[in-house]
Amino acid sequence: MTNSTKTDLKTQNEPTTFVLQLNNYVKPVIKEQIGKDWVLYGKNNSFFQDIINFNNGSPTNAAIIKGYTQLIYGKGLTTNGVNNDALKLFPNREVKKIVSDFKLFGSASFQVVYSKGKGVLRKVTGVYHIPRETIAPNKKNDEGEIETYWYCKDWGNTNKNEPESFPAFGTSNEPIELLVISPYSAGKMYFADPDYLAGLQYAQLEEEMSNYFIN
Q1: How many angstroms separate the CA atoms of 1 and 5, rounded?
Q2: Can you point out the beta strands (E) in the chain?
Q3: From residue 71, how far is each of 75, 171, 193 by CA, in Å?
Q4: Which among 71, 80, 106, 124 is most buried, taking Cβ atoms within 10 Å?
Q5: What are the respective helix, strand and coil percentages of the chain, to the nearest 5?
Q6: 110, 98 in Cβ contact below 8 A?
Q7: How far apart are CA 203 and CA 51, in angstroms?
Q8: What is the pLDDT of residues 164-186, one digit of tens each?
């Protein structure tokens, strides 16, 4: 056996060292954009996409979120026969999307569509889901209230996808208003974190380990 062959065999049998740098995981900072009216969750509203990536990369995380989403939704909405017309405003497919976003992101957004008219003549005609990652709140007014929300298909490229403003629910007579639902969280002014926030780094760990074994 030649020296080169011995060297090759030694190299093949050496254990591989794999380093997971979880200290690189840093929660994004909520920043008001200078010269803009909206507030984003991380650079270009990227924290929402981070959550999506962790969900796609970790089978355990994805399975748990899917299971909880099914439990929350259950058999859908019901009025016990009191006012079935109200259910028509909340199509099942839209409710499922809203529930899914609420569990995944810790909040959900949807548009409330009204009929023409004002006052008692103005009625809700439908409630429709809007992907949470596409919505950003306006800066709060002097009373600490959010009066406007911004929609953008791609916050990473606002030059080609100009953000569009919509009034917050219950603040206008416009035909479409936006509503964001999120639980109260101490110290949070604009965004709610998912209830499994502390586990995101372990979702990342599972993804990195699976990538290592594949390689």
Answers
A1: 6
A2: 30-32, 39-41, 108-114, 124-130, 135-137, 148-151, 164-167, 176-181
A3: 9, 33, 20
A4: 106
A5: 40, 20, 40
A6: yes
A7: 10
A8: 999 999 999 999 999 999 988 77
Burial of 80 (0-12, 13-18, 19+ CB in 10 A): exposed
Q: How many residues does the chain have?
A: 215
At 113, list the tokens.
């569509």
Position 81, amino acid = G
CA terminus-to-terminus distance, the chain: 30
Q: What is the pLDDT of residues 54-95, one digit of tens each?
A: 999 999 999 999 999 999 999 888 877 666 777 889 999 999
* Cα 95 from Cα 111, distance rounded (Å): 12
d(CA 192, CA 63): 22
